[in-house]
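HOLO CASE FILE
Compound: pyridoxal-5'-phosphate
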Amino acid sequence: LQPKTNWTSSKPGNERRAGHWTHVPRNVNMEGLRSGYLFPEISIREHEHIQKNPNARLIRLGIGDTTQPIPDIITTAMAEHADALSTTRGYRGYGAEQGNMELRMAIAETLYRGTGVKGNEIFVSDGAQCDISRLQMLLGSNVKVAVQDPSFPAYIDTSVIVGQSGKLEDKTGKYSDIVYMNCGAENNFFPDLSTTPRTDIIFFCSPNNPTGSAASWQQLEQLVDFAKRNGSIIVYDSAYAAYISDESPRSIFEIPGAKEVAIEISSFSKFAGFTGVRLGWTVVPEELKYSNGFPVIEDFNRIVCTCFNGASNIVQAGGLACLSRDGYQAVCNVVDYYKENAKILVEAFASLGLKVYGGKNAPYVWVHFPGMSSWNVFNEILEKTHVVTVPGRGFGPGGEEYIRVSAFSHRENMMEASLRMKKLFR
Ligand code: PLP
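Model generated. C-alpha coordinates follow.
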Protein backbone atom coordinates (compact mmCIF):
# COMPACT_ATOMS: atom_id res chain seq x y z
CA LEU A 1 0.00 0.00 0.00
CA GLN A 2 1.28 3.44 -0.86
CA PRO A 3 0.45 6.62 1.05
CA LYS A 4 -2.72 8.15 -0.37
CA THR A 5 -1.66 11.77 -0.51
CA ASN A 6 0.30 13.05 -3.47
CA TRP A 7 1.26 16.52 -2.41
CA THR A 8 4.45 16.61 -4.41
CA SER A 9 2.99 15.87 -7.81
CA SER A 10 3.48 18.74 -10.22
CA LYS A 11 1.98 16.87 -13.14
CA PRO A 12 -0.36 18.99 -15.24
CA GLY A 13 -3.93 18.06 -14.60
CA ASN A 14 -3.73 17.57 -10.88
CA GLU A 15 -6.29 19.25 -8.70
CA ARG A 16 -3.90 22.03 -7.67
CA ARG A 17 -4.11 23.68 -11.13
CA ALA A 18 -7.05 25.78 -10.01
CA GLY A 19 -6.61 29.47 -9.08
CA HIS A 20 -3.84 31.97 -9.70
CA TRP A 21 -0.33 30.65 -10.42
CA THR A 22 2.72 32.75 -9.58
CA HIS A 23 5.89 32.65 -11.70
CA VAL A 24 7.95 31.27 -8.82
CA PRO A 25 9.48 27.89 -9.59
CA ARG A 26 9.10 25.19 -7.00
CA ASN A 27 12.33 24.22 -5.21
CA VAL A 28 13.44 21.09 -7.08
CA ASN A 29 14.55 19.52 -3.83
CA MET A 30 10.99 19.79 -2.50
CA GLU A 31 9.81 18.06 -5.70
CA GLY A 32 12.14 15.21 -4.83
CA LEU A 33 10.57 14.51 -1.45
CA ARG A 34 8.54 11.33 -1.13
CA SER A 35 4.85 12.05 -1.04
CA GLY A 36 3.33 12.77 2.35
CA TYR A 37 5.28 12.92 5.58
CA LEU A 38 4.61 9.75 7.57
CA PHE A 39 2.75 11.20 10.53
CA PRO A 40 0.33 13.43 8.59
CA GLU A 41 -0.43 10.35 6.45
CA ILE A 42 -1.28 8.35 9.57
CA SER A 43 -3.48 11.21 10.80
CA ILE A 44 -5.41 11.11 7.52
CA ARG A 45 -6.05 7.38 7.91
CA GLU A 46 -7.00 7.87 11.55
CA HIS A 47 -9.45 10.59 10.55
CA GLU A 48 -11.01 8.36 7.87
CA HIS A 49 -11.35 5.56 10.40
CA ILE A 50 -13.15 7.85 12.86
CA GLN A 51 -15.55 8.93 10.08
CA LYS A 52 -16.36 5.28 9.35
CA ASN A 53 -16.54 4.25 13.03
CA PRO A 54 -17.84 7.26 14.95
CA ASN A 55 -18.61 5.21 18.07
CA ALA A 56 -15.32 3.34 18.31
CA ARG A 57 -12.98 4.20 21.20
CA LEU A 58 -9.77 4.95 19.37
CA ILE A 59 -6.46 4.33 21.17
CA ARG A 60 -3.57 6.30 19.72
CA LEU A 61 -0.27 4.46 20.03
CA GLY A 62 1.08 5.87 16.79
CA ILE A 63 2.70 9.29 16.78
CA GLY A 64 5.11 9.32 19.72
CA ASP A 65 3.54 12.20 21.59
CA THR A 66 3.68 12.38 25.37
CA THR A 67 0.41 12.26 27.34
CA GLN A 68 1.21 12.66 31.04
CA PRO A 69 1.05 16.07 32.76
CA ILE A 70 4.28 17.96 33.36
CA PRO A 71 5.18 17.88 37.09
CA ASP A 72 4.07 21.12 38.74
CA ILE A 73 7.52 21.96 40.08
CA ILE A 74 8.39 22.61 36.41
CA THR A 75 5.21 24.36 35.29
CA THR A 76 5.43 26.57 38.41
CA ALA A 77 8.93 27.68 37.41
CA MET A 78 7.63 28.59 33.94
CA ALA A 79 4.57 30.37 35.36
CA GLU A 80 6.73 32.38 37.77
CA HIS A 81 9.04 33.39 34.96
CA ALA A 82 6.05 34.42 32.82
CA ASP A 83 4.58 36.44 35.71
CA ALA A 84 7.88 38.25 36.27
CA LEU A 85 7.85 39.37 32.64
CA SER A 86 4.95 41.68 33.51
CA THR A 87 7.11 43.52 36.04
CA THR A 88 9.79 46.10 35.37
CA ARG A 89 12.34 44.13 37.40
CA GLY A 90 11.57 40.77 35.92
CA TYR A 91 11.20 41.80 32.29
CA ARG A 92 13.71 40.26 29.88
CA GLY A 93 13.95 40.70 26.13
CA TYR A 94 16.26 38.78 23.81
CA GLY A 95 18.54 36.37 25.60
CA ALA A 96 21.78 34.82 24.37
CA GLU A 97 21.16 33.04 21.06
CA GLN A 98 22.97 29.96 22.42
CA GLY A 99 20.74 29.82 25.51
CA ASN A 100 20.90 30.87 29.12
CA MET A 101 24.38 29.95 30.43
CA GLU A 102 22.92 28.67 33.70
CA LEU A 103 20.85 26.14 31.74
CA ARG A 104 23.80 25.22 29.48
CA MET A 105 25.92 24.57 32.58
CA ALA A 106 23.12 22.58 34.23
CA ILE A 107 22.78 20.36 31.12
CA ALA A 108 26.55 19.81 31.08
CA GLU A 109 26.74 19.03 34.79
CA THR A 110 23.60 16.89 35.07
CA LEU A 111 23.48 15.02 31.77
CA TYR A 112 27.14 15.02 30.61
CA ARG A 113 29.02 14.64 33.87
CA GLY A 114 32.36 12.89 33.36
CA THR A 115 32.29 13.23 29.56
CA GLY A 116 34.25 16.49 29.27
CA VAL A 117 31.31 18.31 27.61
CA LYS A 118 31.32 21.97 28.70
CA GLY A 119 28.49 24.47 28.99
CA ASN A 120 29.83 26.61 26.14
CA GLU A 121 29.61 23.57 23.80
CA ILE A 122 25.86 23.24 24.45
CA PHE A 123 23.45 25.22 22.25
CA VAL A 124 19.95 25.37 23.71
CA SER A 125 17.20 25.21 21.10
CA ASP A 126 13.47 24.88 20.47
CA GLY A 127 13.79 21.13 19.90
CA ALA A 128 15.83 18.42 18.26
CA GLN A 129 13.82 18.43 15.03
CA CYS A 130 14.62 22.11 14.46
CA ASP A 131 18.27 21.42 15.24
CA ILE A 132 18.39 18.63 12.65
CA SER A 133 17.34 21.22 10.05
CA ARG A 134 19.83 23.80 11.32
CA LEU A 135 22.60 21.19 11.19
CA GLN A 136 21.63 20.37 7.62
CA MET A 137 21.84 24.07 6.77
CA LEU A 138 25.31 24.08 8.33
CA LEU A 139 26.41 21.02 6.33
CA GLY A 140 25.04 22.16 2.97
CA SER A 141 24.39 20.13 -0.15
CA ASN A 142 27.91 18.87 -0.80
CA VAL A 143 28.12 16.19 1.84
CA LYS A 144 27.20 12.54 1.61
CA VAL A 145 25.15 11.12 4.46
CA ALA A 146 24.46 7.70 5.93
CA VAL A 147 21.36 6.85 7.94
CA GLN A 148 20.20 3.81 9.85
CA ASP A 149 17.50 1.85 8.04
CA PRO A 150 14.89 2.07 9.50
CA SER A 151 15.26 5.60 10.84
CA PHE A 152 13.40 8.64 12.14
CA PRO A 153 12.22 10.31 8.88
CA ALA A 154 13.63 13.80 9.57
CA TYR A 155 17.24 12.85 8.74
CA ILE A 156 16.44 11.71 5.20
CA ASP A 157 13.78 14.32 4.51
CA THR A 158 16.02 17.23 5.54
CA SER A 159 18.82 15.68 3.54
CA VAL A 160 16.58 15.73 0.44
CA ILE A 161 15.40 19.28 1.17
CA VAL A 162 18.96 20.67 1.29
CA GLY A 163 19.92 18.76 -1.86
CA GLN A 164 22.27 16.08 -0.51
CA SER A 165 20.41 13.18 -2.14
CA GLY A 166 19.70 11.90 -5.60
CA LYS A 167 16.31 10.64 -6.75
CA LEU A 168 13.95 8.36 -4.86
CA GLU A 169 14.23 4.95 -6.51
CA ASP A 170 10.81 3.34 -6.78
CA LYS A 171 12.20 -0.19 -6.82
CA THR A 172 14.18 0.05 -3.60
CA GLY A 173 12.28 2.84 -1.85
CA LYS A 174 15.66 4.47 -1.21
CA TYR A 175 17.18 7.76 -2.34
CA SER A 176 20.30 7.46 -4.42
CA ASP A 177 23.36 9.12 -2.89
CA ILE A 178 22.20 8.35 0.65
CA VAL A 179 23.77 5.32 2.33
CA TYR A 180 21.19 3.18 4.15
CA MET A 181 22.80 1.21 6.97
CA ASN A 182 20.57 -1.79 7.60
CA CYS A 183 19.81 -2.16 11.32
CA GLY A 184 17.56 -5.17 11.74
CA ALA A 185 17.07 -7.99 14.20
CA GLU A 186 19.59 -10.08 12.21
CA ASN A 187 22.43 -7.68 13.08
CA ASN A 188 21.24 -6.70 16.56
CA PHE A 189 20.05 -3.36 15.16
CA PHE A 190 23.62 -2.21 14.62
CA PRO A 191 25.06 -1.73 11.10
CA ASP A 192 27.73 -3.97 9.66
CA LEU A 193 30.45 -1.32 9.50
CA SER A 194 32.79 -3.62 7.58
CA THR A 195 30.52 -3.25 4.51
CA THR A 196 29.38 0.35 5.12
CA PRO A 197 30.89 2.79 2.62
CA ARG A 198 32.49 6.00 3.82
CA THR A 199 30.23 9.05 4.08
CA ASP A 200 30.88 12.53 5.43
CA ILE A 201 28.01 12.39 7.89
CA ILE A 202 26.55 9.45 9.82
CA PHE A 203 23.15 10.03 11.44
CA PHE A 204 22.84 7.66 14.36
CA CYS A 205 19.95 7.53 16.80
CA SER A 206 20.22 5.64 20.10
CA PRO A 207 18.00 4.61 21.79
CA ASN A 208 16.55 4.22 18.38
CA ASN A 209 13.31 5.49 17.01
CA PRO A 210 11.65 3.29 15.71
CA THR A 211 13.34 0.01 16.76
CA GLY A 212 13.70 0.91 20.44
CA SER A 213 17.18 -0.61 20.60
CA ALA A 214 20.07 1.15 22.35
CA ALA A 215 23.62 0.72 21.09
CA SER A 216 26.05 -0.82 23.57
CA TRP A 217 29.32 0.74 24.69
CA GLN A 218 31.28 -1.61 22.40
CA GLN A 219 29.08 -0.80 19.42
CA LEU A 220 29.47 2.95 19.92
CA GLU A 221 33.20 2.50 20.36
CA GLN A 222 33.22 0.78 16.93
CA LEU A 223 31.16 3.62 15.47
CA VAL A 224 33.52 6.30 16.81
CA ASP A 225 36.50 4.34 15.53
CA PHE A 226 34.82 3.97 12.11
CA ALA A 227 34.13 7.74 11.96
CA LYS A 228 37.69 8.53 12.98
CA ARG A 229 39.22 6.22 10.34
CA ASN A 230 36.96 7.68 7.64
CA GLY A 231 37.22 11.31 8.71
CA SER A 232 33.42 11.42 9.14
CA ILE A 233 31.16 13.31 11.54
CA ILE A 234 28.53 11.40 13.54
CA VAL A 235 25.29 13.28 14.21
CA TYR A 236 24.10 11.41 17.27
CA ASP A 237 20.46 11.75 18.31
CA SER A 238 19.97 10.97 22.01
CA ALA A 239 16.37 12.23 22.30
CA TYR A 240 15.41 9.04 24.20
CA ALA A 241 18.50 8.77 26.46
CA ALA A 242 16.38 9.15 29.61
CA TYR A 243 14.72 5.80 28.82
CA ILE A 244 17.92 3.74 29.05
CA SER A 245 17.53 1.10 31.75
CA ASP A 246 20.78 -0.84 31.29
CA GLU A 247 24.46 0.15 31.01
CA SER A 248 24.16 1.42 27.41
CA PRO A 249 25.74 4.88 27.06
CA ARG A 250 23.34 7.82 27.33
CA SER A 251 25.59 10.00 25.21
CA ILE A 252 28.08 9.40 22.40
CA PHE A 253 30.49 11.52 24.47
CA GLU A 254 30.83 8.67 26.97
CA ILE A 255 33.07 7.09 24.32
CA PRO A 256 36.69 8.31 24.50
CA GLY A 257 37.63 10.33 21.44
CA ALA A 258 34.02 11.03 20.41
CA LYS A 259 34.47 14.79 20.86
CA GLU A 260 36.68 14.81 17.75
CA VAL A 261 34.07 13.13 15.55
CA ALA A 262 30.56 13.77 16.87
CA ILE A 263 27.76 16.26 17.34
CA GLU A 264 24.88 15.30 19.64
CA ILE A 265 21.30 16.51 19.37
CA SER A 266 18.88 15.95 22.20
CA SER A 267 15.60 17.10 23.63
CA PHE A 268 13.41 17.78 26.64
CA SER A 269 10.41 16.48 24.63
CA LYS A 270 10.36 12.86 25.70
CA PHE A 271 12.47 13.40 28.82
CA ALA A 272 10.17 16.00 30.41
CA GLY A 273 6.94 15.99 28.37
CA PHE A 274 8.02 19.14 26.51
CA THR A 275 6.73 18.06 23.07
CA GLY A 276 4.44 21.11 23.04
CA VAL A 277 6.56 23.33 25.28
CA ARG A 278 9.59 22.95 22.93
CA LEU A 279 13.14 22.74 24.26
CA GLY A 280 16.19 20.85 23.08
CA TRP A 281 19.92 21.24 22.70
CA THR A 282 22.86 20.40 20.48
CA VAL A 283 26.38 19.69 21.66
CA VAL A 284 29.12 20.77 19.27
CA PRO A 285 32.52 20.01 20.82
CA GLU A 286 35.39 22.47 20.42
CA GLU A 287 37.59 19.58 19.24
CA LEU A 288 35.42 18.90 16.14
CA LYS A 289 37.10 20.32 13.01
CA TYR A 290 36.44 20.39 9.26
CA SER A 291 38.95 19.03 6.76
CA ASN A 292 40.61 22.50 6.69
CA GLY A 293 41.00 22.53 10.46
CA PHE A 294 38.25 25.13 11.04
CA PRO A 295 36.22 24.48 14.23
CA VAL A 296 32.66 23.33 13.47
CA ILE A 297 31.42 25.02 16.67
CA GLU A 298 32.17 28.45 15.18
CA ASP A 299 30.01 27.76 12.13
CA PHE A 300 27.21 26.29 14.23
CA ASN A 301 27.30 29.36 16.44
CA ARG A 302 26.96 31.46 13.28
CA ILE A 303 23.96 29.42 12.10
CA VAL A 304 22.27 29.71 15.51
CA CYS A 305 22.83 33.48 15.62
CA THR A 306 21.59 33.93 12.06
CA CYS A 307 18.69 31.47 11.87
CA PHE A 308 17.51 31.24 15.46
CA ASN A 309 17.33 33.88 18.13
CA GLY A 310 17.37 31.65 21.19
CA ALA A 311 14.76 29.51 22.92
CA SER A 312 11.89 31.10 24.85
CA ASN A 313 13.10 32.37 28.23
CA ILE A 314 9.94 30.99 29.90
CA VAL A 315 10.66 27.54 28.51
CA GLN A 316 14.32 27.72 29.53
CA ALA A 317 13.19 28.41 33.10
CA GLY A 318 11.22 25.16 32.84
CA GLY A 319 14.30 23.36 31.50
CA LEU A 320 16.33 24.58 34.44
CA ALA A 321 13.64 23.33 36.84
CA CYS A 322 13.80 19.88 35.16
CA LEU A 323 17.47 19.72 36.09
CA SER A 324 17.01 20.78 39.73
CA ARG A 325 17.22 17.88 42.19
CA ASP A 326 13.46 17.62 42.79
CA GLY A 327 12.53 18.49 39.21
CA TYR A 328 14.81 15.79 37.85
CA GLN A 329 13.28 13.20 40.18
CA ALA A 330 9.78 14.30 39.13
CA VAL A 331 10.46 13.96 35.38
CA CYS A 332 12.21 10.60 35.92
CA ASN A 333 9.04 9.36 37.64
CA VAL A 334 7.05 10.20 34.50
CA VAL A 335 9.64 8.43 32.33
CA ASP A 336 9.30 5.38 34.62
CA TYR A 337 5.53 5.45 34.08
CA TYR A 338 6.02 5.20 30.29
CA LYS A 339 8.65 2.49 30.75
CA GLU A 340 6.11 0.44 32.71
CA ASN A 341 3.66 1.00 29.82
CA ALA A 342 6.28 -0.30 27.40
CA LYS A 343 6.70 -3.41 29.54
CA ILE A 344 2.96 -4.09 29.34
CA LEU A 345 3.06 -3.82 25.54
CA VAL A 346 6.13 -6.07 25.25
CA GLU A 347 4.47 -8.72 27.40
CA ALA A 348 1.22 -8.54 25.43
CA PHE A 349 2.87 -9.02 22.01
CA ALA A 350 5.33 -11.61 23.30
CA SER A 351 2.46 -13.64 24.80
CA LEU A 352 1.07 -13.95 21.26
CA GLY A 353 4.27 -15.60 20.10
CA LEU A 354 5.36 -12.52 18.13
CA LYS A 355 8.97 -11.35 18.10
CA VAL A 356 9.07 -8.06 20.01
CA TYR A 357 12.04 -5.69 20.22
CA GLY A 358 12.64 -2.44 22.07
CA GLY A 359 10.58 -1.31 25.04
CA LYS A 360 13.42 -1.75 27.54
CA ASN A 361 15.57 1.29 26.72
CA ALA A 362 12.98 3.25 24.75
CA PRO A 363 9.27 4.09 24.82
CA TYR A 364 8.76 2.20 21.54
CA VAL A 365 7.98 -1.43 20.91
CA TRP A 366 8.95 -2.87 17.53
CA VAL A 367 6.88 -5.90 16.56
CA HIS A 368 7.72 -8.30 13.74
CA PHE A 369 5.07 -9.74 11.41
CA PRO A 370 7.16 -11.94 9.12
CA GLY A 371 6.19 -11.90 5.46
CA MET A 372 3.52 -9.21 5.90
CA SER A 373 3.29 -5.66 4.59
CA SER A 374 3.56 -3.22 7.47
CA TRP A 375 0.85 -0.93 6.00
CA ASN A 376 -1.48 -3.97 5.82
CA VAL A 377 -0.75 -4.86 9.45
CA PHE A 378 -1.29 -1.21 10.43
CA ASN A 379 -4.65 -1.17 8.59
CA GLU A 380 -5.81 -4.49 10.02
CA ILE A 381 -5.00 -3.43 13.58
CA LEU A 382 -6.73 -0.08 13.06
CA GLU A 383 -9.83 -1.61 11.47
CA LYS A 384 -10.25 -4.49 13.89
CA THR A 385 -9.03 -3.03 17.20
CA HIS A 386 -9.29 0.75 16.70
CA VAL A 387 -5.66 1.05 17.83
CA VAL A 388 -3.39 3.39 15.88
CA THR A 389 0.20 2.19 15.45
CA VAL A 390 2.88 3.15 12.90
CA PRO A 391 3.75 0.95 9.91
CA GLY A 392 7.47 0.22 10.03
CA ARG A 393 7.76 0.93 6.28
CA GLY A 394 7.24 4.60 7.06
CA PHE A 395 10.71 4.60 8.61
CA GLY A 396 12.38 3.20 5.50
CA PRO A 397 12.54 -0.09 3.57
CA GLY A 398 14.21 -1.74 6.58
CA GLY A 399 10.98 -1.25 8.55
CA GLU A 400 8.88 -3.51 6.29
CA GLU A 401 7.16 -6.38 8.17
CA TYR A 402 7.24 -4.36 11.42
CA ILE A 403 4.95 -2.01 13.29
CA ARG A 404 6.00 0.50 15.94
CA VAL A 405 3.80 0.79 19.00
CA SER A 406 4.25 3.76 21.31
CA ALA A 407 4.15 3.52 25.10
CA PHE A 408 3.16 7.19 25.35
CA SER A 409 -0.39 6.84 26.61
CA HIS A 410 -2.42 6.45 29.78
CA ARG A 411 -2.09 3.15 31.64
CA GLU A 412 -5.72 2.15 31.05
CA ASN A 413 -5.17 2.56 27.29
CA MET A 414 -2.17 0.22 27.50
CA MET A 415 -4.25 -2.42 29.25
CA GLU A 416 -7.15 -2.02 26.83
CA ALA A 417 -4.91 -2.04 23.74
CA SER A 418 -3.16 -5.17 25.02
CA LEU A 419 -6.50 -6.92 25.48
CA ARG A 420 -7.65 -5.95 21.99
CA MET A 421 -4.36 -7.21 20.44
CA LYS A 422 -4.69 -10.49 22.28
CA LYS A 423 -8.24 -10.92 20.91
CA LEU A 424 -7.14 -10.10 17.37
CA PHE A 425 -4.00 -12.21 17.10
CA ARG A 426 -4.73 -15.15 19.36
N1 PLP B 1 14.73 12.84 17.29
C1 PLP B 1 14.01 11.73 17.40
C2 PLP B 1 14.69 10.41 17.27
C3 PLP B 1 12.64 11.79 17.63
O1 PLP B 1 11.93 10.67 17.71
C4 PLP B 1 12.03 13.04 17.75
C5 PLP B 1 10.58 13.18 17.97
O2 PLP B 1 9.82 12.28 17.96
C6 PLP B 1 12.80 14.17 17.61
C7 PLP B 1 14.16 14.04 17.39
C8 PLP B 1 12.21 15.54 17.67
O3 PLP B 1 12.29 16.03 18.95
P1 PLP B 1 11.79 17.50 19.32
O4 PLP B 1 10.41 17.37 19.88
O5 PLP B 1 12.78 17.96 20.34
O6 PLP B 1 11.83 18.33 18.09
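CASE NOTES: The chain has two domains: 34-68+328-425, 72-324. Confidence is low (pLDDT under 50) at residues 1-13.
CLOSED: yes
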